[in-house]
Amino acid sequence: MSRTSQPTRPHSRSESGRTTQGSGAPAVPTRKFVVATLAALTLIAAVVVFTLRGQGSSDDHTTAGAGHEGFGHVHGIAVEPDSGAMHVATHVGLFRIDDPHTAVRVSKDDLDLMGFTVVGPGHFLASGHSEHGPANVGLIESTDGGATWREKSLSGAADFHGLQVAHGSVYGYNSTDGAFMVSADQRTWEHRSRTAIGGFAVSPSDSNTVLAVGRDGLQRSTDGGRSWQPVPGAPAVGLLTWDRTGVWAVARDGAVWSSADGGGQWQRRGAVPGEPHSFAVQDGSLFAALADDRVIASIDGGATWTDRYTPE
């Protein structure tokens, strides 16, 4: 899974609390004041529950053309290996593509999803932003197909712009400080390096080999992301994904490239017919989310493409 992103210089964010102190003799609370205070606390509690559990009914929100607001920008696209269900992670939540003209918004809360990865059937990990909680949600998890999400770790501290589950661990790139991180339990994280990348892909056969789109071109790590070296002769690509059929990448001009040896030799295979926002591979089939909200697929290595979803 990969998304369009220029490598950015690491930056940090901080959240500061504010304490308000009164002065003089303490006032005796009136009954009306106490009732109003309890009501306010109840409302705050309701907002917290809303943030973690979602809103509205348990029904999916089915709309033609992805709803009136559209996808906005797709940060991640993934296909569940067993069911073949396709999901797109967007600025306005998570959508499931049911047919060529129907996108179902399955997330019920207001999440701007950045990093997104599939763990198993109906089981996802993600990161991004929430309007009702911390600005950066850290690592969050859904086990009901994306309808509701719960905190796993680094709430308020991490904004993963890249996530991938591989070899029993979660690999993540935290855009707030440029840290490339790995977790075996989704709660404690090892900070392996600081770098500026726009996306990465882990080898399906070697947990220590990682390719990443760097500021000066494609980068390779052979120690699990602890150090990085340029990949000589690699094309200038912006999107990157990797499965057992090889490394697949899309250049900024839409050209599709592949490598069967982990990035040593490259072959141009075709071109994406539009501006790609995100790119994925599943069992040799390629998928791309385009700027016009279309989602397309190729079964011949990018030579030809067919529509998987087109807004009406």
TrEMBL record:
Keyword match Lyase: no
Region entry Disordered, spans: 1-26
Keyword entries, A-Z: Hydrolase, Membrane, Transmembrane, Transmembrane helix
Record-annotated membrane-spanning stretches: 33-52
Taxonomic source organism: Salinispora arenicola (strain CNS-205)
Coiled-coil residues: none
Keyword Kinase: no
CDD domains documented for this protein: Sialidase_non-viral
The protein's name in its UniProt record: Glycosyl hydrolase, BNR repeat-containing protein
Record-level Gene Ontology MF annotations: hydrolase activity
